[in-house]
Design a protein that fits this description.
The protein is of the alpha/beta class and about 400 residues long. The protein has ten helices and 14 strands. The protein has two domains: about 110 residues, no CATH class; about 270 residues, Metallo-dependent phosphatases (Purple Acid Phosphatase, chain A, domain 2). A six-stranded mixed sheet has the order 1-14-2-3-4-5. A six-stranded mixed sheet has the order 6-7-8-9-13-12. Strands 10-11 form a two-stranded antiparallel sheet. α8 links the parallel β4 and β5. α1 crosses α3, α2 runs antiparallel to α3 and α3 runs antiparallel to α4.
Amino acid sequence: MFLVLILLPVVAVAAADWLHYRRRVHALAPWRRRLFVAWCCATDALPVLLLLAGLLLPDNPTALVRAMMWGVWVWMLAAVPRGVCYLFSLVGLRRAGWGAGLAAAALLVWGATGGRTRIEVRRMEVRSDRLPAAFDSLRVVQLTDIHVGTLVAPERELARLVDSVEALRPDLVLFCGDLVNIRSSEMEGAPARILGRLRAPLGVYSVLGNHDVGTYIKDTAALRPETSRRRLVETQQTMGWRVLEDTTLWLRRRGDSISLSGISFDPSLRERRHDRRLPLPQLDRIYRDLPADAWNITLTHLPQYWDAILDHRRGDLTLAGHVHAMQLKVRLFGRSYSPARLLYTRWSGRYDERGRTLSICDGSGYVGYPLRLGAPPQITLITLRRCESPSPRP
């Protein structure tokens, strides 16, 4: 399904080019026909060439991956405005189509500049009568999906992210995975130093996402996935972060405690990471010896695990990432829409079921194409509240 979502726009644009040629261009002067065909062939071939390069090249160094992402953006900038013009032309509004096409191009430029870098803070409260009194008003910052290797200006973008988190004065910082894009070396130098500035009274904790475990490294003879994963965990430890690898620990505050669990990404799920239903993680082991009445926060990269977490009656608050809202989101009539809705049951924002809450953060980095439209880089600030009335339970 994910591959279909990638290829469908490419095929649709090529088909639209052919139809437009048959309807209008074939009657133009020969030089104009040749120019149109050359332009369409060059731009329509670009995503195919990028896909072949990704498949056939022996390795995928960070610089190459970043360049290929910008190649995708160039194709979008050439294809989307053209498609908009075609649609208006079909109903006889050619001049309006030119204006709409220019507006579409402007949106794509904005998405690759301001939309890609302007951070949004999403605020929410989670109320529970079971929350220990000492944790009332606890401020939790949720981060996810930084993808350091794809950042255009890593030092500037990471510093802006850290400054934004520090301004929120969190008691606890939780990161939901995909710190890097391909390999652990992306964190060397400035990225580790800047992100190492993150501090909170109760600590900084993280889990590993699908991009953190080395499954996208092509030249595994030069760097084994297991080695990259181990080095990334060690780097986070030197930064002062604690990586939760399928485990649970206790957070203590003024004599009370809550539990914090972390689910690491299973590398065997690489090809199924976008499936609506996944094999169950080792939740029995993760929640082992956890009292039934323990208030629990669960970190997972994949939001698809929430049903299983609910079935175990854990995750009073579950935090996830992974989806990014596919970096494209529009809000109409009080509801949000995104291509991500085609793949995921739950894909962005807050969900409340069975007296428990799931928060899916849209993340701060970008993959596939270097833009964000309607889904800006996001930090989620969650305030825990102890309420007097009983919270609903199954």
